[in-house]
Amino acid sequence: MSVTLDQVSFAYPGGGAGVRDIALEIRESELLAVIGPSGCGKSTILKLIAGFLMPRSGRLTIAGEDMTHVPPRKRDLGIVFQNYALFPHMTLAENVGYALKLRQVPANEAGGRVREALGMVGLGHLADRLPRSLSGGQQQRVALARALVFRPRALLLDEPLSALDATLRGEMRDEIARLQQLHGIATLHITHDQEEALSMAHRVAVMREGRILQVDTPEGLYARPANRAVAAFVGQANLFDGEVLDAQNVRTSIGDLACGAHPFPRGMAVTVLIRPEAIRPAESATGPNRFAGCVTRDRFLGAMRRFDFALGDGQCLMIEAESHVASPSAIELPPVAVQVIVTGQAGAERSAETKNDNPAVPA
User: Of 41, 81, 170, 363, which one is least surrounded by beta carbons within 10 A?
Assistant: First the structure.
């Protein structure tokens, strides 16, 4: 079953931040992540879908059925909260079975479904335990089992991993992805963790100031950001103001650069994006797209190093390379790595509309 928001807007009382003209589809069997800075509207979208908030305008459908003003209990959605929200006085089995009790599922059937749900998350042997005896990762698994046990129409995840340490977050990413694929359920994942979103989701939506800037596959979002705001938010980026010289060259504050193919006319003001990992150490500064300079900061990050590379005019580029690479004294910017993108938001909004049609969910 799919979930669709059609030009949905919402404003909090007193003029607080909300969302504007949200057009978004969570497809059947898809995990769609929403990322963006704090206060951009990520959680507001989840609350609108859940029915905790009612839109000021627009339409919400689930499996093609208009649910815009239907109360939460009748939407049949599974929700996993950041703080798990388990009942401390109930056993794991009772916590998971509570949703079935509310739906008046017969006891003999409910018992089997609870055992199946706890077994699915590897906690069947702990059914009689209380939540306080579990680790954070185990409690999160119980919350997932509870959200899935009644076979919801869609699954909503509200920053479910933010309270876990780094190792557990990695394990739970894999667990959530496994369960989502096992059930083939449309899933919305709200997160502030880019790595989490890019590693788990079929598609990712980037939000800013209550609007969706771009929706694309993780690979497409990183490789083809719609505008400067998306490029700056997703991953590490070197960004420069630029002016188009022709189809293969752009003028920037660090000099004229040969660039990758682009559709923009001569004289147009643009943003130039160069990802740190695309910059190569060079033997000399002789030749196009080559620059001399020096490393002002060298950060060892395990499998890779991150350099701050100062050019002669005082400007600085970020470079990422394998950890064995020595500090360079000259660099090369391959033309294909010099991307010319739109500066303003208009291009991002057009991209958000078109990228929604990108088939990203595995069959």
Answer: 363
